[in-house]
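Cont'd.
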Amino acid sequence: MKAFAALFQRLDQERGTNAKVAAMVDYFTATDPADGAWAIHFLSGRRIKRLIGPVQLREWLAEASGLPAWLVEETHQHVGDLAETIALILPPARAEPTTDARGLARWVEDEVLALRDLEPDVRRERVTAAWRQLDEPGRFLYSKLLTGALRVGVSQTLVERALATATGHPRPVIAHRLMGRWTPDADFFRGLFAARSDNEDASRPYPFFLANPVDGDPADQLGALHAWQLEWKWDGIRAQLVRRADQTYLWSRGEALITDTFPELAEAARQLPPDTVVDGEILAWDQAVLPFAQLQRRLGRKRVSRRFMAEVPVRLLIYDVLEADGCDLRSRALGERRERLEQLLQPCSPPLTLSPRIEAGDWTELAALRDESRARGVEGIMLKRADSPYATGRPRGPWWKWKVSPLTLDAILLYAQPGHGRRANLYTDYTFVVPDGEQLVPVAKAYSGLDDREIRRLDRWIRRNTRERFGPVRSVEPVQVFELAFEGIAPSSRHKSGVALRFPRIARWREDLGPDDADTLAQVRALLP
Amino acid sequence: MQSALIQPTDRGLYCADGDFYIDPWRPVERALITHAHADHARSGHARYWAARDGLGLLHRRLGNKAALTGVDYNAPLQFGRVRVSFHPAGHVLGSAQIRVERDGEVWVASGDYKRDTDPTCRAFEPVPCDTFITEATFALPAYRWPDAATVAADIHAWWQENAANGRTTMLFCYALGKAQRVLAQLPADPPGPIYLHGAVAPLTEDYRRAGIALPDTRTVGEAPAAEDYASSLVIAPPSAAGSTWMRRFRRPATGFASGWMRIRGNRRRRGHDRGFVLSDHVDWPGLLQTIDDTGARQILTTHGRADELVRYLRERGLTARPLATLYGAGDGDEDNA
């Protein structure tokens, strides 16, 4: 645990990516394999199930620290993070140095996961005993594990880079080995170092290749149009369909297995030959593409009834093939993969569909097509170099997304609450309202879009202009106007405003505008398609 | 019962029986000053009294013409019906608590203070009193300071590491008090020269003139344009971060020394390489200890987390309430603590 706590501290302190990678390389090279596996589990943002709720932890903390419960709660609000609050307010650990040399894996398994089977009183006993013997960094880490949410602040790419250096394997190999389902144990960790993983998991998807947004006019930046393969940018769920050994696995970009959420796609995948992996987009589709809000209704369900499948039908629009006949095609040029994909999908019928290529004679014609995006229910245009291999992550150059300009509206800030992680004790989560006659009606929540300086200034303003407090939420004088950008707008019966915005974020703080200049609800509704 | 010995007014804390103000923020005839920070020592008053150790700093802040009277610690003065004396507060050079006594009733206004070791000023001395006016900048249990010598050793080790990598070490901290305290507490074997920002250098000179031993320093503004700061430690006020002044340093490693660095969110948000927990204000355990030491039954609070402290003290059977003052820049301003 000490070694991982030290790694955590180094990662927390270092700003440079090279230094972060170096810290992880040091750790992975020296660590016990089981500890290393758990470290990767947490570093790559995986969680463990939360066993003890925050209310319970605060109660134990009040008792252990001898402070009144309300003061623990005020302090928690000020600090922003419960595990950190625990580390900061408990009295210093006893003077004698701890002799506990257990590593991360033992701590996770013996002191966290094992709590599951204990009586509440025994749990409290175990947790407070652990608090007493750990130093501040140890307490913080242990309490983070208890709350199930250890966010380290390194990207998956950096973890892959560090493991690539530590194991001597190329990064794509490491990235692939980290995909999908795995158990954090010593065997998994050793498997990362192995020359050839002999127990390759059949379900494992490939790392997704992501596009960068075009900034400005692509005609000035991307050269001749004929070098590019053009497709619509769909507004759905990116997914990889893995067909191996007569089994089908559907993976979302967040590496969630969503096979059971879309049984009709799994069924249709039987049309594909074994050992095939394709990449595409899941869309709600009835004659034509339906708004994302429809697709959203299909998410988060464990079982999907026939009737519901008929109510919101879906399709997988496929635009790439990564593996055919068990052969990894990712290093082949996109043009070649596209030919292979068209052959492969020839015998297939909906809901498996080829995502069409679009044709444009020149950049002007393409720009005109892009202007039709909203009417066609797409987000814009994808530009992929015809000679590009299927890379890992988001390298700049081969793949671009050229989205339509976002919609905007001017709304008023009414509620604010503290954020998480590095924004834990700042008011950074905002709720915006627009006037509807005499009333102010919420239209959007937004978390990003301001720079650090603006965030601090707004935080100070919020604290000084608070009207009411409801737990962590404050209401403020409704005078600050912000321009919100968003990708789409749909009718919604769940929201008081009657509309739901897609991807709202702050475009600008409009200090030049007063609340009377904000858009009204009627004006917002007029944006509905 | 008689009227309160010290009362908040729109000009500052006022003692009617002695007809003087403590750290007033609007012009008055007689001002008693606890210390030289800008929110406590403002210009425009007719006459000033302050602890003798801080006269140099106060003259720099208020100008040479300011009518300043230096007072020895513990030496009594008479103002009308009340006896007044200044006592070390341990905050910065020349900082004082102000004790006011009328007919056996004693009030102490602490100004800003801390209980931790600081070689640049006289250590805090608890003064028994009936009413204690305390700051509450860091009055939450999360604020407990690490040992200052350990923090100084951490800064030193970080400087050594940077110097070994050929990088300049840039430490941001408050120019009056914190900067000199860091200088005084650094271990004796510097890996390179120490440079001061133009806002830090003159105040540091004032400390030396007052007899405080500090390591040798140079001033950035006086260095040649082509100066190589590779192994240097540079001490600058937080406002210098991100300014054009920074351009002369190539890829410096930056750190920030402040009590606010106790919170991880603050450390990370500042975007510096390191945050060092070092404050000239009292921490939570020190605050409770001090209230205990004074034996006061009534506690009045200024700055910061006053509401929580007041509630906590009331639950422990003390009389407590917040005083409205303009001290401290308020929530979110993290530069001077």
